[in-house]
Amino acid sequence: MSLLNKNILLLIPNLGMGGAQRVFHDHSVELAHHFIVKEAVFNLDGGNLYPSGNELISLDVSGGGSPLDKVRNFGRRISRLRSLKQRLATDVCISHLEGADYVNLLSKGSEKVILCIHGSKLHDGNIRGPIGWLRKKVLMPGLYNRADRIITVSRDINPELIDGFGVKREKIQTINNFFEVEQIAQKAQEPLTPQEQAVYDAAPVLVTSGRLTIQKNQAPLLDSFAALIKQQPVKLVFVGDGELRDELTSHARALGLRVYEAWSEALLTPAYDVYFMGMQQNPFKYIRPASLFVFPSAWEGFPMALGEAMICGVPAVTTDCPTGPREILAPDSATPATGIRRAERAAYGVLMPMLNQPATLASDQQVWTTTLAQLLNDPAERQRLGKLANQRMQDFSREKIFRQWVAVINDVLNS
């Protein structure tokens, strides 16, 4: 069977800011070397932050509104996608993110359907309330087995789908996200501005990258940092933006920390403790010169920001959250039945206690403070971990990952 003439439709709710959207773009670009690829979105309300060069079709169905509006829009999305699949003579439709998965499955005709699952479902703090119950108890258990194949980005998502939602084991396969290793390494060499360099020269820098959201759980990191800065000079740099911007800056100030905000008119100087740099076209130039990359997420999929920091050769200190960090930093270890309560020096970085358990939060934050202090005072260990981090990320090159994707699509087409 010739693959080059096969029509692949990639579906995602939107192409606004997000890790899944970046992965969607990368898949679109790479799969176009092997298939005829088109993209579809529910709407373009968030713009197209990740243009791939492939044709993009909007179903032009908005979100939001009353519960009745949402039901109607859901039906419109299914109807319009079904028509689009027929018009494009789609052979395989690959959906990214849960909302797109439902629409993909419910519009299924003769084409094959593949779902790409980007994150934990059992631990996702956004899945709550009556709609969350509907998603966990009805939609996922009732619909996911209709897929021809389900691709998870992390091995630890698989038992969630099998045990939590009754998905058939034989339908599931893990293909990790890939990273543009050489491109990221090259961008990381871009020099800081003189003002930025002065900040990095003034004290060791902890850096974290990602959206300012409940998933990334940055608030407790500020508490640990506030304790750390009482022990030694250190600065904390946030690269990214999000809906918790005001809450986090207020929390930092309440802890007595001096806060710089890139969106304000303040001058960038070494006089601050915490730096919110906002969205950056090249986040890697802020990561590479840092002493440590800190990653306090409450849950993940296969975290792009963590992998990118490791490519930059920065030692990673991350929560052992579901899912992804352990698979990257300690690939030969099993996921523990209960959360770790102390620092774990893994093969390629440091795994840390979660920072979202109220009963142990104070002691967990102390573990973070102590471990960060130890690493900041051990340059030889930081250098060792940085080299290992970069070495590990060679396992996730574009070529290795997409050989797996092409094989899966070929297998599905022939089944």
From TrEMBL:
Residue ranges of every copy of the Glycosyltransferase subfamily 4-like N-terminal domain listed in the record: 18-182
CDD domains (UniProt xref): GT4_GT28_WabH-like
Highest taxon, organism lineage: Bacteria
Pfam families for this protein: Glyco_trans_1_4 (PF13692), Glyco_transf_4 (PF13439)
TM spans (from-to): none
Protein's name according to its UniProt entry: Glycosyltransferase
Organism encoding this protein: Hymenobacter koreensis
